[in-house]
């Protein structure tokens, strides 16, 4: 039994290109729009975007400003966020619809800055603020701040303080979940 | 003059052992799936009186991952060996071998 010396290897993952693009659909027209891209819950930039990311499973999310509502990915997937398994270079296009009837929800703090918040309609997660959903009629709306240690709930922009709350969507409704920043110095 | 009986002694050489086992790698920073060749050198305590088979076991993080069999020729005082290795996940790995005459 003659044991050799030991060699220590550091093995890094392989990296591939992820390209994310986005388009809007409006009255049969398809045109490019700019949306925010989040990879593994971290803002990665705006479309069109190409990033080198490590091989493996990743969470991909795209967020458009109102009144654009996410519809589907070019490969047919309708989940947003979605999981992607990176094993080679990949290009994905997110398609959004220009909404004239629906609910657009944003989340802001007392300084007007965007608050990271999950939005739920009728108890179902529909996206992170800002998010636009194609609904009408009476629904339950809830905002859940993702950083409650930094933001304190204040009210909705129409003055309602309940959260969750009921909201009657007639036509196009834009509403903001308002928070107070409590995190100290900005 | 009275001679005693004669005792005949047969003296054999001590068994040859592997006294040193050294491995080297061309690099230690790799990418997942990248294959490299590890080179090893065995040194014997003496020249082999006859050819001998050698079993080399490769361990990664103290777990056996592969075996290699080589034959050292008669008269040799050492031998080189090599094998390929790759890793299928990112991380840190320790690799060593254990060499034994068969």
Describe this structure in words.
- The complex is a heterodimer of chains A (186) and B (102).
- Chain A has 186 residues and is mainly beta.
- Chain A folds into 2 domains: 84 residues, Immunoglobulins (Immunoglobulin-like, Sandwich), CATH 2.60.40.10; 80 residues, Immunoglobulin-like (Sandwich).
- Helices cover 0% and strands 63% of the residues of chain A.
- In chain A, strand 13 and strand 14 form a beta hairpin.
- The model of chain A has no long low-confidence stretch (mean pLDDT 94).
- Chain B is mostly beta strands.
- Chain B has a single domain, classed as Immunoglobulin-like (Sandwich), CATH 2.60.40.
- Helices cover 0% and strands 56% of the residues of chain B.
- Chain B contains no helices and 7 strands.
- Chain B has a 3-stranded antiparallel sheet, with no helix packed on it.
- In chain B, a hairpin with a 2-residue loop joins strand 4 and strand 5.
- The mean pLDDT of chain B is 95.
What key attributes describe this structure?
heterodimer; A: about 190 residues; mainly beta; Immunoglobulin-like; 5-stranded mixed sheet; 4-stranded antiparallel sheet; about 0% helix; B: about 100 residues; 3-stranded antiparallel sheet; 7 strands; rod-shaped
């Amino acid at each position: 039994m003659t044991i050799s010396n030991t060699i220590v290897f550091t093995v890094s993952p392989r990296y591939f290109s992820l390209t994310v693009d986005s388009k809007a659909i409006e009255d049969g027209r398809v045109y490019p729009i700019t949306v925010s891209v989040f990879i593994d819950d971290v803002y990665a930039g705006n479309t069109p975007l190409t990033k080198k990311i490590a091989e493996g499973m990743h969470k991909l999310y795209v967020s458009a400003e109102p009144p654009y509502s996410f519809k589907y990915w070019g490969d047919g997937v309708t989940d947003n966020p979605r999981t992607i398994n990176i094993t080679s270079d990949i290009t994905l296009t997110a398609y959004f619809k220009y909404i004239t009837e629906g609910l657009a929800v944003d989340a802001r703090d007392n300084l007007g800055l965007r608050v990271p918040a999950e939005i739920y309609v009728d108890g179902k997660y529909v996206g992170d603020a800002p998010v636009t959903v194609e609904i009408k009629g009476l629904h339950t709306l809830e905002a859940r701040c993702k950083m409650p240690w930094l933001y304190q709930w204040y009210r909705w922009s129409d003055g309602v303080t309940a959260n969750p709350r009921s909201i009657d969507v007639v036509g196009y409704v834009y509403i903001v979940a308002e928070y107070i920043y409590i995190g100290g110095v900005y | 003059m009275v001679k005693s009986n004669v005792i005949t002694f047969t003296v054999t050489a001590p068994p040859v052992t592997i006294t040193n086992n050294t491995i080297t790698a061309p690099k230690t920073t790799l990418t997942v799936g990248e294959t490299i060749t590890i080179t090893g050198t065995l040194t014997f305590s003496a020249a082999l009186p006859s050819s001998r088979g050698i079993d080399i076991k490769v361990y990664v993080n103290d777990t056996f991952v592969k075996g290699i069999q080589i034959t050292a020729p008669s008269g040799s005082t050492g031998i080189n060996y090599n094998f390929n290795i790759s890793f299928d996940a990112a991380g840190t790995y320790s690799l060593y071998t254990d060499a034994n005459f068969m």
